Amino acid sequence: MSETKFKERTARPSDIPDMLALFERAKTVMRASGNMQQWGDGYPNGEVLRNDMRRKASHIAQTEDGVMAGTFAFIPGIEPTYLTIKKGHWLDKYSLYGTIHRIAAEPGTGGFAKWAIDWCWEHMPNIRIDTHRDNSIMHHILEREGFTRCGIIYLKDGSERIAYQKICDIERMVKDAHLVLPARLRSLAEEYGFSPKKVFLKRNRSNWGSCSSLGNVNLNVNLVRIPADLRDYVMLHELCHLRQLNHSKDFHDILEEVCKAHFGPSPDGSPIYKAKEKALKSYCPV
Predict the structure, then answer these.
(1) Which residues contact 53 (CB under 8 A, 6 or more apart)?
(2) How many CB atoms sit inside 10 A of residue 5's CB?
């Protein structure tokens, strides 16, 4: 089955029974390879999967004939258990990353792990993942796919895990940001009648952008790693501060008017900027 092609779709609650059964079959492979402790005590359970689904982070890989071949969770943003790492360090602690959790394939399905990692990489070229010390299969896959062993992290229950990271060239990311972000901001400014003065690019840890009283706009270089619509939203948000340098009702009225013009009206009539802010929380600027 090494030539099997997969198609990603978002997991649904109706998938949970099949996903749980798949995890049990994957555990059998783990135990046979000497990994006797990982995913014990009924983990992952239905509630864990439902929580992934609520975050839109649970994914299914299907074969061309619609058969479930594997599953994984990919979660952008800060992973709390990664805030402390022992006996090593992350390759980069300032850039936006996504974490792969709960990856499992139907036994005998070749190529799934590489496909899943490639899918995540296309969506965010900074990936972290952890696995049990005894998971020789996953260690082999991660090292083969270019991950670096970074150190040891600890789960909420105190269990030890080996942490890995794969990251794109930071210099290339910054170069891409300089090519893309100022030009896009200028284009949006011209389209909606704003006149920013200077545009600065920074690697901020606490925000996606800011606007100064001098009319200058600061943008986080990590904006090149998030979806284009959210990137545009951040830029429009900062441009609107050229007219209101606060977060008052007047500011949000201006922002909503611009958002309607750029993104189109909300299907349910709710504020568009609130939906974009909520989506933006799935990512983090560091």
Answers:
(1) 10, 11, 12, 13
(2) 11
| Block residue for tokens 């269990």 | 159
Q: How many CB atoms lie within 10 A of CB 236?
A: 24
CB 16 within 8 A of CB 127: no
CATH superfamily label, 170-280: Metalloproteases ("zincins"), catalytic domain (3.30.2010.10)
d(CA 16, CA 87): 37
Class of the domain covering 6-167: alpha beta
Q: Is the pLDDT of residue 60 over 60?
A: yes
pTM (two decimals): 0.64
Q: Edge to edge, what strands does the sheet with 98-105 contain?
A: 6-10, 58-63, 68-76, 98-105, 126-131, 160-167, 148-154
Residues in Cβ contact with 225 at an 8 Å cutoff, skipping those fewer than 6 apart = 95, 96, 124, 125, 126, 173
* Phi and psi at residue 94, to the nearest 5°: -110, -15
- Top-confidence residue, 181 or 95: 181
Q: How much is the pLDDT for 23?
A: 96
Q: What number is the average pLDDT over the span 208-216?
A: 95
Binning pLDDT at 50, 70 and 90, where does residue 1 land?
very low
pLDDT of the residue at 5:
83
Domain boundaries, the chain: 6-167, 170-280
